[in-house]
TrEMBL record:
The gene is citX. GO terms for biological process: prosthetic group biosynthetic process. The lineage of its organism: Bacteria, Pseudomonadati, Pseudomonadota, Alphaproteobacteria, Rhodospirillales. It catalyses: apo-[citrate lyase ACP] + 2'-(5''-triphospho-alpha-D-ribosyl)-3'-dephospho-CoA = holo-[citrate lyase ACP] + diphosphate. GO terms for molecular function: holo-citrate lyase synthase activity; lyase activity. This is citrate lyase holo-[acyl-carrier protein] synthase. The keyword Methyltransferase does not apply. Keywords: Lyase, Nucleotidyltransferase, Transferase.
Length: 182
């Protein structure tokens, strides 16, 4: 396995870059909410470490887009806007969906829990009236760690797993997905 395929190569990003990307994402979300007054689905990739844009994050985001488009089509939910963004802080996108925000969140949580790469996705739903719809507000458990059954936030806060372990798990997940396809 070469450094190019391990996901360890790429441009390391700074905290300032991550904060700037978060602010720009929030501005795009708010602009979409204002323009359409419909739920916004914000999609990103969980990529620990300083390198956010790499082969693995691109594979995960492409799979997320494919799964989201299939879900929206299957539910007959009109997509009013699709806006992808790619940069050193990792791939992301927003969709504006003409459907009930709670129904969207339920469906996205199921995707995150059942798709082979779903654990690598960060799929948020922002409702024009309620703001961000959380798993907890739907009575669903929090996301699980990539490596164990503990809550993801607890493992991340305690740094229970090394960056090397996490990146290796992500490489295996994306490699297996790429080898077998959707």
């Amino acid at each position: 396995m070469t450094a190019e395929t391990t996901g360890r190569n790429g441009e390391a990003v700074s905290l300032e870059q991550m904060l700037e990307a978060r602010d720009k994402r929030a501005a795009r979300q708010q602009a979409a909410l204002t323009r359409f007054a419909l739920p916004v689905v914000s999609s990103g990739v969980v990529m620990p470490g300083p390198v956010k844009d790499n082969a693995q994050s691109r594979i995960a985001m492409a799979a997320a887009r494919e799964a989201l488009e299939a879900l929206f089509a299957a539910r007959d939910w009109p997509v009013r806007l699709f806006e992808p963004v790619r940069g050193p802080t990792g791939p992301e996108s927003i969709h504006v969906i003409d459907a009930d925000a709670l129904e969207i969140k339920r469906a996205l949580a199921k995707l995150e829990d059942t798709h082979p790469l779903g654990r690598l996705w960060d799929l948020d739903v922002i409702c024009p009236e309620r703001g961000i719809i959380s798993r907890r507000s739907l009575g669903q458990p929090p996301r699980r760690c990539l490596l164990c059954e503990a809550e993801a936030h607890a493992c991340a806060r305690s740094r229970r797993h090394s960056l090397e372990e996490l990146l290796t798990a992500i490489e295996k997940m994306t490699g297996a997905y790429s080898a077998t396809g959707p």
